[in-house]
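Why does this matter for the project? Reviewers at the last site visit asked to see concrete outputs rather than summary tables. In response, this paragraph embeds two records directly. Each consists of the residue sequence and, immediately after it, the corresponding structure tokens. Nothing has been edited or filtered.
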Amino acid sequence: MSASAAAAAPQPVTAPIKAGKRKKLILIGGVLLLVLLLAGAGTAYWLKSRAAAHAVEDAGDEEVTAQLNAAAKPNPAHPPTFLPLDIFVVNLADRDADRYAQIGLTLEVDNAAFAEQMKTYMPAIRNAILMILAHKTSHELLERSGKEQLAAEILRETVRPLGITTAAAPKAEAHKVATPPADGSLTEVPSKKAKSAAQGPHNPVRHVHFSNFIIQ
């Protein structure tokens, strides 16, 4: 082969191919780095939002607790009003024997005006209480827990005839540890207004006091 033919023969192009591979690897690395940065930023934002939400929730719970404690504290300037009811005599729901209960109740309400209002609804209130008592057994009422449950049901049912519906006391739930979603979205945290709405309206009947409790 002559020198001119050797010079004209095409030479292998290696440098441009290596440069292209290098650019491709740099591009892929840049994309991966960007994805990791975005994921880290999303996770950090989610954690900060959750921490802020829990701080607001805890502050709201403390405020609600303080309000409940202030409401429960006796105020000598505004003493509660007690509304005694006529004694209830009712057959109980025992199946093995005929048992009956003789129970006296006194309702502690917010003020005298509401006590007078309750008197106008007394037939419906007494009917609601009798319906509760008629479904109880002597075994339930002999236990302290049964008496406390009875008082809670009477507390809720005595205001229904007046158009006041209160929610039952929610059971305490264990706190769950949340994990950030894969898509980085945030879980909505219930507001204090939503919690107050779930608890229902204020019950003007504060307590149910037993003045007489006989089971035979």
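We now turn to the second protein, recorded in exactly the same manner.
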Amino acid sequence: MTALAGTMAGAYGVYLLYTAAVLGWRGVGVGPRPLARVSGRQRARRWLAQAGLDDVEPAQFAGTMALVLVATTVAVVALFGALAPALAAGAFAASYPLVAYRARRRRRRRVTAEAWPRMIEEIALLTGALGRSVPQALLEVGRGAPAAMRPAFEAARREWLLTTDFERTTSVLKARLADPTADAACETLLVAHELGGADLDRRLAALVEDRLADVQGRRDAEARQAGVRFARRFVLLVPLGMALTGLSIGDGRTAYGTAEGQALAVTGVVLVAACWWWSGRIMRLPEEQRVFLGDELAGAPT
């Protein structure tokens, strides 16, 4: 029995040595360690980076929402004289920074998505006909990128000048842009830089074709939703106008202060918030998921 246990332990030790040397696995488990789960703070930082706010901390973002909550609550109390509806309205208004940053994020991702096909074509031209190296072509094209993308390329340029490590340079660029197309383009260029190959033009052309199809599809979908998005604003404007009108009719302001009036007002605010959330959810276009994340947060600002 002892001999069997020793044999099994020796065999497992050989297995661990082999997987560590050949596959790069670490630890004493039978397989690689699972990827660490992304924390909520890391997800928040990625989301802010996609909105071009990579220098904003999640705590600052939460502080802005709290400030809007307090300011709106005070304003509604002063206007209607009722605390419960004011708290409900303040909680709803506190989501405005989230909505504003989400809209900014959506606009920034649209700009970058529309710019990448042209930039990839320029990279293919520089690396092919003009004989530039892959890192040089990428950073040179970044000089003519849209304004929202230039800080990311500047950070990547600094990383390249300091380390001449193209993998770290692309990691910084991916972390700053936080965009699926940037991930795919950087990974394609990184493989071409490390392994070489004569089919870089073909790969970049296929990537350009795929990106153009995605951009055109999203443009068509947003064009069809334009009228619905305009009508969605009435979910806020009409109830607000009716509430303000009620102040000038009879003892409207006093009615808001009664228990029944406050209950009805809170119910109205909750229904408006629910309709706003539901209408935005059903119109939300599916977002392309990022797959080449790696340890990108090491290149993100702290």
